[in-house]
Amino acid sequence: MSSLSSVASLAADTLDAPPLSLGELTYRRFRRHKMAIFGAIMLVLLAGYAFIPALFISEKYANYTDTGLRLNAPSLAHPFGTDTIGRDILARTIYGGQISILIGITAAVLEVLAGILIGATAGFYGGWIDAILMRLTEAMLNIPQIFLLIVMAKFFAGGIPDIHLLGRTFSGSVLVIMMIIGLTSWPYLARIVRAEFLSIKEREYILAARATGTPTYQIIFGHILPNCIAPIVVTATLGVANAITLEAYISFLGLGVRPPTATWGNMLEGAYNYIESAYWLWLFPGLLIVLIVLSINFLGDGLRDALDPRSRTV
Amino acid sequence: MNTLLEVTDLRTRFHTPEGTIFAVNGVSFTLHEAETLAVVGESGCGKSVTMMSLLGLIPIPPGEIVSGKALYHGKDLLHLSENELEHIRGKEIAMIFQDPMTSLNPVLTIHRQITESLRTHMGMDATKATQQAVHLLDLVGIPDAARRLNEYPHQFSGGMRQRVMIAMALACMPGLLIADEPTTALDVTIQAQIIELAMRMREQLGMAMIWITHDLGVVAGLAERVIVMYAGYIVEEARVDDLYEDPRHPYTLALLAALPRADRRRGQRLKSIPGAPPNLLVESKGCPFAPRCELVAEQCWAANPALRSVATDHRTACWFDVKGMQL
Amino acid sequence: MNQPVLQTNSQMPTESDAPDHSAPLVQVNDLKKHFPVTRGLLIQRVTGLVRAVDGISFTIQRGETLGLVGESGCGKTTAGRAILGLYKPTSGCASVAGLDLQAASGDQQMLFRRKAQMIFQDPYASLNPRWTVNAIVSEPLRVHHLFKTEQERSERVNELLELVGLNAHHINRFPHEFSGGQRQRIGVARALASDPLFIVCDEPISALDVSIQAQVVNLLEDLQDHLGLTYLFIAHDLSMVRHICDRVAVMYLGLIVEMADRDELYENPLHPYSQALLSAVPIPDPKKNRARQRIILEGDVPSPLNPPSGCRFHTRCPIAKEICSQAEPALRALRPGHFVACHFAEQYL
Q1: Is the entire prediction scored with pTM above 0.90?
Q2: For B263, which of C213, C283, C300 is closest by C-beta distance?
Q3: How many CB pairs under 8 A join B and C?
Q4: N or C end of chain C: which has fewer CB within 10 A?
Q5: ipTM of the complex as predicted
């Protein structure tokens, strides 16, 4: 009778492209980035290196000192040599890897949580809330992160007792370092999240959600946040590399994680005096740090390109 | 009338990761001196790409001009070097675009932008160029021209910016002005002003114009001849009166039937064209309009009809004679 | 003859509880929306006021379509949003089915949101790119707790998609997989989900190709016939407005300058601005175009930050006299149902 039937005939119209969700599109773009794939593989290998041999080599062994064997060059018994108090470097790089990676990931998680919280609040509400939060953020951005870290590390040094978890003992300083890296890295992400919120907030689909009567928290978490995922993921990934590097810095300066807990960074601390005479002290942990940071950066680059909404092609 | 531009069998494609986009598929047309030609079609029909191909404004790669000739004063535009093209662009053939904000450099004054063209192409010195620039702004109806010459693009409204674009385009007295949807983004009263300006310029300067648009109302008020494009093909070509009174292609008929009229009492429902705009990733074997055509038959799928003459100065690309049809 | 196609399952008070069906469904009274222009870092000072909507009043009857036309900066989009409470009005009021959002309780506010919906202009920006079609269209159902199970909601979404002419199989696809016209239909489906009485259509077809515009307009008209919807159709395309609207109001710089029945306005425009507007509309008929008397307005639209004194149109008006720059003309009925805000409109009668 009326044109409803002619309208219904359009129901037959098919979509040209096969169903490709945004996730699949992203994955396809990622695949084209050779260095990113290399980085991802490298990361898997490094993580494997840090966790799998730990099934065969105990932590006790990593911390076992035998001063008779100190400063031995790499040999069959000790493939990476021994350090200044006779501990096996290979084993220490394994367990050190665990801590370094743990610190990297946890600090990045803290950074992301704090960054999103502050950025979203500032971006969504605007006004004086935004003004205050942004001045705080800018203040923190103006202070070089390393100085902040050094000051905070010194301040909290030795304050936290050892932690006993899963049958292992961690120096309390691990927790301290993790927290202070995370809590000094958020400003960068907060600014990005705020910018995203400011721009997305004005989009028509947000207006549509408001016209529907959607409550505010659903708008923030259900509508806006999923659309900011791209820069958050990229920043979080690069944040892990940043955290590992920072941990290396402070540990090298003697303010980081306390022995006997090993990290790749604090293994470099003692190596300063033996740069030429005992290269194995710094070469192996140093190489591992370089490898993991490079891999994460490659991965991050690939993610950034893959998630860029402007490249709509596969 | 003398022939100014003769385009033969222009084919332009784009190579993208998703496939090849067949943007322009064998377009041929002739433009005479001081003539106004309108190119009508919806988005993706290839009207802009055609004109940009002529002026070498297509990025190559991913674009590729597969074949074609475009004779302008005896020179084949498609086979000129970039250097030679630069002498033609702006000087003999000028082009204005839809969004004047992105066509004008936001950090340079209008003065700078107009005189640049005058000094490069006409070899004028600074004083003469400035004088001419003021004259041009006056010509296009910008009040207080001498003072406004030193302002920046953002200080002008949309309509004013478009006038500035026209002034820049006319600076070197080109023989041909190509306007790519110049009024689409403007309000209707401002659009009327710009069209009136264009018509005045056309008379004063005896300039030929190619006006690209999707608005059949604008075409009716401005053009002398019209080309209708669909999926990279020309489907109909006629004098303006003939196109509206005696359309001969189902697509033209459908477009006209889908238009609401401000000057008529409301009739029945608008006749919509079913389906969606064509997929340019596929080079169609048959007629590109077949999936949406009311008169479609076997032969339409098998082969693509070529443009054939159906009356004086009136060509259509359809297997059927749709004369006098009402959709 | 019409079977109820749409069923809702709601515990909210239904429209049959509302009083008096012969009263207009939508009533707007001296609605104003001003945007302050601020300067300052921590403490913001107001340095100016953009009077986007500066006092408009009209009513819309049930089942009617009122067109709101004007050029950019006239405030029509702001008006639509202010009526739906997306912008908090500076003063004045707007009510739909007797519900005034600003004065209503929480429950009443949710009822308003169910009964008054909006269709947006940009099909590429009005759908969340990360949500599936299902999520987008069912959002009103979830927010208003209209069905109990996910299953029921999906069925309703399927119904809606079929109603707007989309294939229900596409329910789990993402917006970027659809064309502009199809996305606009998804927007329509979303607006219909909560069974509204009144829909503000904010330039719903401007961003679409000509051949698709007709499809969407036909859809809107069909839906109006079947569901008894009331529309406020905001547009700048005067040809389309003549086709779809019953009455038309012309806005200029935040005020309504003329309002009349559709044919009356198009055949006898009494305000100089309406006349200029109509004469500027391109007609797809070369002979008529040539024969036309064009009224070409001088200059640009003034800024709503600083509207001209007295009658806002006097700076561009071909018949402006001295009084026009001093006194703002009121909207008055020059003919039954035909309102004009001009000191000298009588001369056109």
Answers
A1: no
A2: C283
A3: 133
A4: N
A5: 0.84
